[in-house]
């Protein structure tokens, strides 16, 4: 596998990273991080489930999809530490992953559209696609850590709330979406690392262009004197004698 070709690994990594960022966006917007189910013993009333998100809170009766209480200003008054941390962690993870996607796209475009024989004057300004993918893999790994740690903490904090108050709290689907998106980011970084490991045998440094000057300057280089000096004196001085018939 060479770094000067666009491979299925880099395309799959880009698609996986895009899907992971979309999953993070869905997890951020959905009001389904925590449920608080309130039971009533009155037969004339229905149970209420409070859906808590990062930005809004919604209370619904059982069997209804309409919010009885809708609080769009919930993000300013979040009183649960894990959700408050997620308000900062998930957007930061999305920003990091988007930067990695941009670098990955630059690397693929540089591989696909840049000529194999670059201009000597512009060679120092070129970007090595292998370097782009390596840094993108590191950013994907960082985005995974930023997203995964607080998302798993929600599960443990939910158990803490049940012990402290009453067992009415449960984590919702957004937790699973965020954890799955973090897994997608980790898978993307592994793909890019594997691709880079297959390309690191190239002679160029990891962030420098693939050619430091035009390949034609390498093509007709003469042998060094040390190679010619190995010829013995007999091979140099004694002529070859042929007999004419």
UniProtKB/TrEMBL annotation:
Family per record: Belongs to the claudin family.
Could you tell me the keywords of this UniProt record? Answer: Cell junction, Membrane, Tight junction, Transmembrane, Transmembrane helix
Q: What is this protein called?
A: CLD12 protein
Organism lineage string: Eukaryota, Metazoa, Chordata, Craniata, Vertebrata
User: Which residue ranges does UniProt annotate as crossing the membrane?
Assistant: 6-30, 88-114, 134-156, 168-196
PROSITE patterns documented for this protein: CLAUDIN
Is tRNA processing among this UniProt entry's keywords? no
Topological category with respect to the lipid bilayer: Multi-pass membrane protein
Its source organism is Corythaixoides concolor
As for subcellular location, the record says: Cell junction, Tight junction; Membrane
Q: Which domain of life is it from?
A: Eukaryota
* GO annotations of cellular component type: bicellular tight junction; plasma membrane
